[in-house]
Amino acid sequence: MKVPLLDLKPQYLSLKKEIDDAVQRVVDSQYFILGSDVTKLEEEIAEYLKVKFALGVSSGTDALLLSLMALGIQPGDEVIVPTYSFFATAGVVARLNAKPVFVDIDPVTFNISADLIEEKISSRTKAIIPVHLYGQSAEMGKIVELASKYNLAVIEDAAQAIGAQYKDGRCVGTIGDIGCFSFFPTKNLGGFGDGGLITTNNEKLYHIMKIMRNHGAEPKYYHKIVGGNFRLDTLQAAVLRVKLPHLNSWSEKRRQNAIKYNNYFIESGLSEKVGVLKFDSKNKVLLPKAVYSHLESILNYHIYNQYIIRVEKRDQLVEYLKKNDIGCEIYYPVPFHRQACFSYLKNNDGEFPNANFAAEHSLALPIYPELNDEQIKHVVYTIKKFYFE
Ligand SMILES: Cc1ncc(COP(=O)(O)O)c(C=O)c1O
Question: Which of 4, 151, 279, 376 is deepest in the core (most CB within 10 A)?
Fold first, then answer.
């Protein structure tokens, strides 16, 4: 049985007519940059997330870069980021010649360890970028509290987490000063190419970012500030507007798939329960835990953009799964403090044990909504064969 890491075709086929019509409508109009589809998408997502302002941009990476530019981050400023995330989270900081300051992750959630942030704050610190990794909220309460104590901006990297909720029920990306989202095709809400979105409740920041999205022009061809081309394509917005009403049901299916995985791993004897952090004879596979999932509510709503296990002999398992036609991926093999491009920061590897453990043992399994029960069971029992045969 073949189980790809992600198969986008069933989702497209289920909405083919609406999507094709939306694309044709844009093609017929011959209007391809921003326009009413982008404005409507912004309004619809602002309503969905319950935030005042949303701004469609060219990618999740550009959402982060534009946020830092709008906050006036300067060369030499420090920005605190988790050491374990997709490269863009730290890359945007370095691109402005500011200094990314790395913090280890929490071993349960894989998100920035809020308790380790304060010791990294200096007189040069200007902002914190918590990442809601894999689709689960970071510990926003503590982060926002620290930020207000030290007068820092909070930019939420919600690229993987559209629709995820913090434990108080607020959507991620609406809690800090700015939220950044990605519509990369693999995301729960994925476009037909690159795209992203910025959210904020701050009217002044919204206005600055809106101008900076289009080279800082206001009015056209008059520039008080320098921006860039951070615009979202009309075609992407038209496709995303068709998909948005289905986002909740897709995320819910991912959550159900995560529960099925957990149950099959426990049934198979590879794991004892969720949230175990050390390997032993009863836990060959460490299962992800949505914190507070014991509460019978939608609080701390994890949208499972990725379902991540931690395993021993990970790299051999990857080879074995590939040989058996099962897709998997390592998100991420190298934390920022170990990246060659950041060696100039001279970080101490021993300071980041949880990120190092994650980098050496994490493995993403297929979790997309259309996956069926048989496929999930097959993945788990193929992994069992690897360890016990
Ligand atoms: C955590 C995180 N931040 C930022 C990004 C960048 O988004 P994009 O690929 O749309 O530029 C991604 C995308 O993969 C991501 O996962």
Answer: 376
